[in-house]
Amino acid sequence: MHEIGILTSMLFRRARTGLSGVFGIRRQFGRSLAPALIRPGAVIEVVAGMVVVMAAGFLLEPPDPLFLDGSFPWIWLAANVFAMRYGALLGMLSGFCIWLGWLLLYPETGMNDFPTMLFVGGLVQVIVIGHFCDIWADRIRRLRSANNYLRDSLVSITNNHYLLRASHERLEQDALARPATLRDAIEHLRSLPAPAHSGTPFPNAQAVLEFVATACQITEAAVFPMSSKGFSSAAVASVGVPFELSVDDALVAACVEQRALTHLRQSESWDSAYLACVPIVGTSGNFMGILAVRRMPFLALNTRNLELLLVLFNYYADGLEEHAVAAPVQAIAQCPYGFAVELGRLARMRKASGIRSSLLGVVCPSGFSGDSLYDRLMQERRSLDLLWRFSSGRSHVVIVLMPFTDDRGIDGYLDRVNSNVKTQLDMDFTEAGVTLYRADVDAVNPGAGLKNLLGRCRSHG
User: Fold this and answer.
1) How far apart are CA 283 and CA 322, in angstroms?
2) pLDDT over threshold 80, residue 367
């Protein structure tokens, strides 16, 4: 049985090889008989081919080289082959060659004896065959163009898919290594426990630096405080391998002089051991210290990531001087201390980085509807929003501080609250007699902007 199986497989391979050879010869013959494209020398080939065919006929049958007296017009077979090969136009050329051959090879025959029906039938046959050749050649060209387009599209889609997959993997890595938004980062900084009075100039500095290092993909950095005697050589917080600050470093000197974020991409002439330096400056303008970044991934060293680093440490520095942040606001508008601190922080953030925040004043009448609306506002309050409620005459006033929110964000917030009120209380803002006022957080004088909003709300009440 084993020998029979081997013999069968050998016969099958030989048969398959023979068939492939036969079909290969057939494909090669088909390409030579009907090429995909018409070559520039096709006219010469047709004329020379017809001359060779008529010369062969003259050698085989000198009295009748065109085989006009035979039972089958064999000369037109050559014309049909050229028509099938090159189309109707060159098929007509081969018929014209036959007519010239008749004039040259049959000089004794007059025009009265011209085989009209034979030539007309041959030309009609050549035209029909050539027409089919033209139709299928045009279809092949269109099919080839479509295939080329599909192949190019497939290559483009494949490349785009690869780039999309690579960028998606990169985004996944970034999403796992850093918070989704600035809002999440600020919320985390707010959630840090209040520091005890330990005498350190930077309470919670280690926790803040570890979080910022994760958010901004920093692998090696340290925070150095500054006093009247200069920078301290010992870091109060660090990630990665600890190191001492080089005060004479060009990047550190530029950061201290400009009191702004400095990094190596700003100038190629700087020879520094650090990649970036972030000044820690309080609201009062006091230069409190510096964050020196020594190592971070190359792709993380971009403007957006460094600006996030600056914003987070500015927010942290404002928290170290809460009284200096809240005092200017409370001196103009009598608001709660925590509300004033956050308003001052957001005002400085807008002045330094252009990040916009908003204030929303909600004036609702006293009574059941006003209390119910306040409960709805508390339920719909976002994690970073701060609410301040007080009474003014016969109305209740709620001031909502909305960090990182522009007019579109306020509209979305109001639509959500209004829809909830409509569902729960079967009335909207208009039916409840609610009046809304909005204002941007003033980057220069946040207390004056809050006082202006309070004046509008109280005048309504």
Assistant:
1) 9
2) no
Decide if pLDDT at 174 tops 80.
no
Pairing of strands 358-365, 262-263: unpaired
Q: Identify which of 162, 142, 140 has the alpha carbon closest to the alpha carbon of residue 154.
A: 162
- Which residue has tokens 């522009």? 406
Contact 183, 403 (CB under 8 A): yes
Give the span between the Cα atoms of 419 and 413, in whole angstroms: 10
* Contact present, 320 and 350 (Cβ < 8 Å): no
**Which residue do the tokens 């650090």 mark?**
274
**CA-CA distance, 358 to 238, in Å (whole number)?**
35
Torsion of CA 192, 197, 200, 203, to 10 degrees: 10
- Considering the segment(s) 342-460 as one domain, its CATH architecture is 2-Layer Sandwich (3.30)
Q: Which residues contact 285 (CB under 8 A, 6 or more apart)?
A: none
Residue 294: the pLDDT is: 92
3-state secondary structure of 388: strand
- CA distances from residue 115 to 81, 110, 361 in whole angstroms, order as listed: 22, 11, 106
Cα separations in angstroms, 363 against 384, 415, 433, 451: 21, 16, 8, 15
Phi and psi torsions of 357, nearest 5°: -130, 165
Closest CA to 185 of 71, 365, 363, 310: 310
Q: Which amino acid makes up residue 377?
A: L
CATH of 184-190+204-320, one of 3.60.15.10, 3.40.718.10, 3.30.450.40, 3.40.30.10: 3.30.450.40
What letter represents residue 351's amino acid? K
Query: By percentage, how much of the chain surpasses pLDDT 90?
Result: 11
Nearest CA to 263 out of 276, 254, 253 is that of 276
Helices (H), 182-284: 182-190, 205-216, 250-258
Identify whether the C-beta of residue 270 lies closer than 8 Å to the C-beta of residue 250.
Answer: yes
- Tell me the C-alpha distance between 50 and 96, whole Å: 10
pTM: 0.58
* Spatial contact of 332 and 451, defined as CB atoms under 8 Å apart: yes
Taking the domains of the chain in order of start, what are their residue ranges?
1-26, 34-106+115-177, 184-190+204-320, 342-460
Instruction: Examine domains 184-190+204-320 and 342-460 and report if their fold is the same.
Output: no
